[in-house]
Amino acid sequence: MATETKTGLDQVTKDIIKSTVPVLREHGTDITKRFYERLFETHPELKNVFNQTNQRKGDQPKALANTVYAAALHIDQLEEILPVVKQIAEKHRSLNIKAEHYPIVGENLLLAMKEVLGDAATDEILQAWERAYGVIADVFISVEKEMYEEVENKPGGWVDFRDFEVVRKEKESDVITSFYLRPADGGEVASYQPGQYITVKAEMENEPYNQLRQYSLSWAPGNDMYRISVKREDPMGEFPAGKVSTYLHEKVEEGSILPISAPAGDFVLDQLDERPLVLISGGVGLTPMMSMLETVIDKQPEREVIYIHASRNERVHAMKARVQEITEEHANVTAYTVYDEPADPIACDKTGHLDRAWLEEVLPTNQAAFYFCGPKGFMRACYQYLKQLNVADNDIHYEVFGPSEDITAS
User: Fold this and answer.
1) Region (Reductase): which ranges (predicted)?
2) Helix, strand, coil shares of the chain as percentages rounded to 5?
3) What pLDDT score was predicted for residue 4?
């Protein structure tokens, strides 16, 4: 993509924006929380777009606050945040966010700033942020326009949602079920890169709004259908059962129709890299890892692969038999299993949690490409262990479930 990030802002405006950085650091999440409240009060139809579970948990306001803060911090050089822009734009494209949504967001964001900051949000500050928001929105709109055009013009590609039929439903473990999806119109499917995801639109009875959820594609590209493998999110503490995962597990059957968006995402396997590949997953984080593993044994059959999977026990471990089959057929692949509470201690290679000492023991080198995915606590631990093992920053690749969150803090 050749998107430019020239700000077009005068120096006075930039200076005012930069002066708000300390305020955003302190009050950013309060502002974005109030923003979402305002947004859904004035435009309840947008509840069809935003994940309401992430709203309840506070993940989405925090993610937006981090983005606004980064934009203010780098207002002189917005190209510094272009990687983050592209990551968010991938999600926006998969959710079918359009240019006409940006003025609505801008208006409510400025009003939320005014409400939360009170007299500290002077007219001068609000006017500066209005100009800055316009520039930042233009960057997003431009990047997303290119993404929409690219996906629409590729073979089998489409924009918005397209109906797919569930042609097979397969239980993978006590909590994970796979769904095989084929276009209901009989057409071809768009190709994708291993690690990408699709967005499912769940149209559930007795629910006032549709629900959108993103699920990684869990097998290699090149098939005439897609596969997603979904964990049933059971009630946990103050949080109820996941509406969409429960709906998929209990209501969706073979023959059901699911509208989905075209594959998206920037967490993808670099197939030009021939160095050893280390895949690390926790729980249902195995879904993009399986796509990468299936791809590399087909496209790079000589590449050394280490696959480490961690889960609570063998009953919730999905696709273990498939990984074992791959290791038996491909001498270049080695797999390890870590169980927190195994029913049978000999069913895994390590009992308890991943730790740095064990990783150092089983990893042949730190000069490799590392990809990991799983719950946020698991991801933070993986990142810290790899840094302690002196793995280079550009060799560490990860994807966070839900809104992006900084997992790099020690």
Assistant:
1) 156-410
2) 45, 20, 35
3) 41
